[in-house]
Amino acid sequence: MLSAELEMSRRFVVILACEDDRKWLIRHGGDERRLVAIPNGVDPQLFEAARHPSRGVLLFVGNFNFQPNREALTWFLEHCWPVLQADRSGLSLRVVGYGADRIRERPPAVEIFANAPDMLPHYQESEVAIAPLQSASGVQNKVIEAMAAGLPVVCTSPVSRGLSDGHPAVVADDRDGFIDACRALTSDAARREDLGAKGREYARRSHNWNTSANDLYNVLVNVK
User: Which domains does the chain show, CATH number per domain?
Assistant: First the structure.
């Protein structure tokens, strides 16, 4: 795979990539003059969406036809969810995404929304978004969408590597760290509000379609 990607970086005048992939290719010999990072954007309505979260709702968004999402949810339900529920009554986990109806075993206080036609209400009604993927590449759009909608995010290092510098996501990779991060946010409204506001500002700054489109235009008009 690496040899094929490096060959493409030599054959084409411009290669578009997320920042993490661009850095990785450069470290492995790619031509940085040809490798250009154009950030993904988000729906601008998310920046202005009102927040009316339900108490104690955690949100997991993903396409469950994608194995890393299934593995991430299984890991969270097996290793983190029982502890969080035992700590605090009233917590619930909302699972939203294509193929979520494939989930057969549903622990207590887990809601399933398969093939949701509109994600906005789920972002508005949740307190914390989680992305406990053990493997991930590129940008996880669900994470930047959650930030744009004002949710604090708890994610793993593989997910955070797809974000730009200065992101406000809380990063935790092991069971205890992920539990502690979720526990801290679900019990502290002021911290949720602070990280939610910082996430919105980060998304406006780093994942704005108008900015990305302008950057892409400037790249293409200078191709020779």
Answer: 2-41+208-221 (no CATH), 45-206 (3.40.50.2000)
